Amino acid sequence: MVDRNALNLRWTFGFNRESDAGTLVDLTVDGRQAVFYSVGHTGVIFDYELRRQKLLQGHTNTITCAAASDDKKWLVTGDAGERDTMVVVWNAKSAVPVRTLFEAHPGGVISLDITPDAMYIATVGVGPNQDLSVWEWTVQRDEPMYTAAITSKDVQHCVRFKRDDHTEIITNGTARTIFWNIEDEAGLKFYSPAISTKEFITPVGHFTQSVFIPNSTQAVTATEDGDVLLWDQVLLPALHARPTDRCGVKLLRLHDEGCAISVIQVFDNFLVTAATDGHVRFYDFKFRLLAWYEDLDVGPIMSLTFTSPRTVPKDGTMLDSEVRVPNFIVASKSGKIALVNAAVFELFTKEERRGELLVQAFESPIAAITAHPSASQFYVVTQSGVLRHVDYESQAWLRTKTLDKRTPTCMCINPNGQELIVGCQDGALLILSTTDLDLIQKSAQVYEAAATEVKFSPDGMYVAMADAQNCVGIYRRERNVLESGKEVPWLYLGRYRSHHAAIVGLTFISDDDSGVIRLVSLGHDRVLVEYDLANSFAATGIVVRSAVTIEQTAVPCGLLVLPPGTQPGEDPKRTLLVSSNDEFKLKLLDVLGLTGVHDERPLPSQESHCVQTLLGPTYGAPPSNLQVLPDNGSGKRYAVYNTPEKVVGLMKLPLDGNPNTAMGLIAHPGSVRGLSVSHDGRFVLTTGGWDYGIFLWETDTGALDQMATLGGTGIEPIEALIPGGKGGD
Q1: Which of 444, 469, 695, 724 is 20 to 30 A from 424, alpha carbon to alpha carbon?
Q2: Are 217 and 232 in contact (CB under 8 A)?
Q3: Which residues are within 8 A (CB) of 98 and not within 5 positions of it... i.e. 6 or more apart?
Q4: Cβ partners under 8 Å of residue 185, min gap 6
Q5: Which DSSP letter does residue 282 get?
């Protein structure tokens, strides 16, 4: 058995800022200051004192909710997706899963809670046909202890136990709050009081979260208008109502109008609210304001958790009458997780009352990433136009620049590490310096077609861009003067519509034997196009050297240039291209065979350009992005790949069709937006874009070698693919 992984997750950047409040959980205990948050389908226990991450892997879908027991010993996480959903109970100290509830609800869970003593877990499934389930997770059974259908058409998105009585549960959607009671024989019973607009002076906004007031019959529901709705039992209940049923009795304004209360929680003797205005306020249970934090400088707050007790002043004095507000941690829509020492409430200046930044993440989905060609650094740009320069060894954010009025879509770095090119939604190209991120040149916006891929030539003399209109544009490093009189280093040669379907591959080839740089593109139209760079000029436009149909029925998905001499028996100077297709095949193409104009004849009648067709990786979907790892001097070569959804993997070269020389794993819960290899090949950076995260994977090529060895030699691995083995069924 192989006990090593070829790709090992070492660090995460970002967090799930789109998840409902509930994925930020304090895990501070004696000897450790830590907080839990999630990045895509991966949980992170971050020790912010030691700056270490423990990574909780096992979910295959985006983690949507989390909760912990009062003693911080048990952590529960839940996810949501089309298949393979789960609720996992973890030992929070060791980060080891101790219980997994598979398919707790069809489509996963949208919210969960755990009782203070960690005996029971409540889960609410995703809509529209929802259930509320209560699990006694310490008992080995697959079914919940209690479950009931949520008949309300209002999708419920929050669930909470009553802290001093686990038989009472509250859930809410945007318009309805439901009170649940656990009755031993009857199971879960509910009551959902109606809200009439005539009962209150002002309209009731959409609900966000609900919580019980301890040691009372009251509960509160927060709204998007900055109000809280107070629920309580009444002396004269409505007809057919039980004496314990609650109704809305008062609407209270706790935050400014229009500032949604995103978090409402009870901690000790405090009712705590946090809102999209970035403010956190502490009230007593009579709604009297005790403390407020309005200068945290983190942006709209989406989640809050309480950590260690308030720090005692250095002189050791603290009055018994003093309000002892706990320290807390907040996460915001701006991509920040910050620690707030409650004592800053008493400080005078705004700067002193700010939170301590623990995690700096991303304010919008990630558009592209690229690793530095000679340093342990990478660049990341978000869809909102924020470009960042990051050191992945120290996890330090080195520089940040906002690209005004631009929506980036792709990015590439010059092999010499001095220039960065960002392609944008409107078709513009931005050329920036990597040292200070200053703009060097902005390309002419000829057509408003989104850039889908940009590439530098190996010698840094050319830039090619593919766009959403199936065209390829080319720039040459040649000083020229714009109409404005400004001298710029890059000359726009032109744009050519070389495909009638989406371009899936764009790459330069360095022909060392002839000293010529070549450019090819591959599309879903099955055509591989080579461009004549030497004879392409700004005055005459781009010249196509050849266009060859490389498939009859299969659809190409990706393109890779193999290092010369990779395949056994081939000329060491011969350059081969690899095309992946939707039939999970890898086709090796001879670049020198791609000559002449477009050949309309069927492939069997054309001049030979296909060297070999092999079985490719079969993990989920065909590879759409392939990159060769840098040579580490061992004499062995490898390539990394990703599929459009979920999977990132590693392949051993030379390619031979052996299924044991490739591996794949679920790296992201949804689409894989970008992949980039570090300068030394030790690490692979991947992002899902909309999961707001970047994963740093360490490669262990020895594990792949071991897997290939254990899979057999010669034809044995191929025979194992036959149903029933060598002898068949």
Answers
A1: 695
A2: yes
A3: 74, 89, 90, 91
A4: none
A5: E
Distance CA 163, CA 69 (A): 11
Nearest to 452 by CA among 523, 548, 396: 523
Task: Please report where in the chains the tokens 């060769």 appear, as a residue.
Answer: 628
Rounded CA separation 345/608 (Å): 76
Stated as kind and residue range, the H or E segment containing 717 is helix 716-719
Average per-residue pLDDT for the chain: 90
Cβ atoms of 413 and 419 closer than 8 Å: yes
The H or E element that residue 264 is part of is: strand 261-267
Q: Which residues of 320-329 are buried (b: 16+ CB within 10 A; e: fewer)?
A: eeeeebbbbb
With 70 as the cut, is the pLDDT of residue 275 above it? yes
Residues making up the chain, counted from first to last: 729
- Is 416 in a helix, a strand, or coil? coil
Q: What gap in Å lies between CA 21 and CA 28, rounded to an integer?
A: 19
Token pair 């909780």: residue = 56
Main-chain dihedrals φ then ψ at residue 716, nearest 5 degrees: -55, -45
Residue 198 is which amino acid?
A: K
Structure tokens at 162: 């009553």
What Å distances lie between residue 363 and 226, 260, 438, CA to CA? 23, 19, 21
CA distance 646 to 81: 12
Distance between CA atoms of residues 231 and 407, nearest Å = 46
115-154 pLDDT, tens digit each: 999 999 999 999 789 999 999 999 988 899 999 999 999 9
Residues 6+ apart with CB under 8 A from 541: 493, 494, 496
CA-to-CA distance for 94 and 27, rounded, in angstroms?
12
The residue whose two tokens read 């996890």 is 395
Q: Which is it for the CA torsion 491, 495, 498, 499, positive or negative?
A: positive
The tokens describing 6, both together, are 């070829």
DSSP string, 686-709: EE-STT-EEEEEEE-HHHHHHHHH
